[in-house]
Amino acid sequence: MDYLLQLAASPTAWVALATLVVMEIVLGIDNLIFISILTNKLPLHNRQRARRIGIGMALILRLGLLSTIAFIVQLTAPVIEILGHAFSWKDMILIAGGLFLLWKATTEIHHSMDPAPEDPKTATSTVTLGFAAAIGQILMLDMVFSIDSIITAVGMTEHLPIMVIAVVVSVLVMLLAADPLAKFINDNPTVVMLALGFLIMIGMTLIAEGFGAHVPKGYVYAAMAFSASIEVLNMMSRRARQKRLATEA
Question: What is the per-residue pLDDT for 127?
Answer without folding.
Answer: 43
